[in-house]
Structure formats: C-alpha cells, structure tokens
Amino acid sequence: MVNRKDLSDEPDLNDRLRFLRERESVHSQRFREAVEILKEDLQQRMIF
After folding, report:
1. What gap in Å lies between CA 19 and CA 24, rounded to an integer?
2. Are residues 8 and 16 in contact, defined by beta-carbon separation less than 8 angstroms?
3. What does the alpha-carbon distance between residue 31 and residue 9 come to, in Å, rounded to a whole number?
4. How far is CA 22 from the centre of its chain?
5. Pick from 29, 34, 32, 17: which is nearest to 6 by CA?
6. What pLDDT is stored for residue 34 in this prediction?
7. In the chain, pLDDT over 70 holds for what percent of residues?
8. pLDDT in tens, 14-34
9. Residue 36: which region, alpha, beta or left (left: phi > 0; alpha: psi -120 to 50)?
10. DSSP 12-37
11. How far is residue 34's CA from residue 1's CA, in Å, rounded to a whole number?
12. Is the pTM of this model over 0.70?
C-alpha cells in the first residue's frame, strides 16, 4: 500500500483519500458478508 504522505502535501486531500480508502474497505467487507448470507440462503433452499 502506498503511504498517503507520499501522495500529497495537502492535509485536506490526504484526509479525503483516507476517508475514501476506509469507505472502500467497509463496502468490500459488507459485500463479502452479503455474499456469505446469500450462499447460506441458497444452501438452505437446496436442502428442502
């Protein structure tokens, strides 16, 4: 991962980039959780 200090000397820009990275990480985690829920749901439907 690139250190955000290497990207810009502007604190406001670095704050925005950090926020976007954190948001992307949360979105990715939630997407994986949703996929697991759907997999479990499909498996339960196949049993019956």
Report:
1. 9
2. no
3. 33
4. 7
5. 17
6. 97
7. 83
8. 999 999 999 999 999 999 999
9. alpha
10. HHHHHHHHHHHHHHHHHHHHHHHHHH
11. 26
12. no
